[in-house]
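Journal club side-thread
Mid-discussion, someone asked how the predicted structure for our own chain would compare to the paper's figures. Pasting it here so we can look after the session.
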Amino acid sequence: MNEGYQVTMENIEGTYVELEPLYRQHYEEMTARMNEEGVELSPYNPRKEVYFKAGNEGWLLTFVLRYHGAVVGYCNIWLTNDMHNQDLIAREDTIYVTPSHRKGSGRLLSQRVHAELAARGVKRLNVTTATDLRVFAWLKRQGYKHTAHHMTKTF
């Protein structure tokens, strides 16, 4: 099922040129869905210097999903310490798999992310579903718990 797929952890600055088209595609999909909810997002304009600095300092992990060497997905994870108890926790920044590769490769990507976070001693991973709400049911099947609602108010 996952033949030809590989997930590696890579430095975001070093792989940004390959990832950027997918970042842009992901943003377009997310913007379209948010517009359906009446939430308008500003044009795509990433803060690359912040991502690069965090990646180089080890606070942003970038996992890259490749199919026969070509980038077809990614996951960016922020690491931090919980303000209330200092546990090492993680927050998904973005996770994306191109539409033509969404039949099982996301599981491979998430397994690699989960294994890396567990090996680092991370206590919790928080994820928000924004681009495709159907992912919510998939996350529950992966063992995620519904612990909060994410609400957006625009000004």
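Post-session note: The mean pLDDT is 89.
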